[in-house]
Amino acid sequence: MNVSVILPAAGLGTRMGRSVPEKAGTSRKQFMLLDGSPILLHTIRKFASSPSVKEIVVALRGEDMEWVRDLLGKENFGKPVRLVEGGDSRQESVEHALATLGEDTDLVAVHDAVRPFIELSTLSSVFAEAAECGGAIVGIVPVDTVKQVHKNKIRQTIPRERLVLAQTPQVFRFDLLKRAFAKAREDGFAGTDESSLVERLDQVEVSVVPGSDRNIKITKLSDMDLAKLFLAEEMAIRESS
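The chain above was modelled as a monomer; its predicted structure follows.
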């Protein structure tokens, strides 16, 4: 199984509300330092440790390419990590990266660059499910009661057992994902995630693999405290094994 991983990292990350390393020239969350390394680097390391992953492609803003290239040059991932210039949206960035993948790619996994705590066991599960069914995402069932509202008035209570909070990675057969992006471009459709594009094709039923509360998306400053805790726990486990 050859899995190519796409990390869209061209977003502006305006919710962080603070600056990051000056060399990045940005205020973007993927470059925030976590234990001395940018969050993006922690995410790359996690995927590089998966035996199923053959390469990692990071989609960046043009002004960040040189700085990130220098950063990656100091690492030894044991597999290719390539950089491509992203677009103005996540969808454009992923499509740019898709265009650079080789035809021998079996599966494509798209993952938020700011989710560094995805577990290797979850990766194995979602890769296997996507290989069998054509498409699979990681998701969790909400713990809170969910209400549908209109102008701040409740219209109905939605059963939680029918809901899933989508996480990443979202993994699909290469040919299927390419068709989904081509169809979206043709129709002028902008999706909120890769699964929403694939669902429009009505060719496969996308499966959901159970995720974890630890697979957080670091989008605001308060997330950093939790990220530091999770990283410390991971490091303690590695040192004890």
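The longest strand covers residues 165-173.
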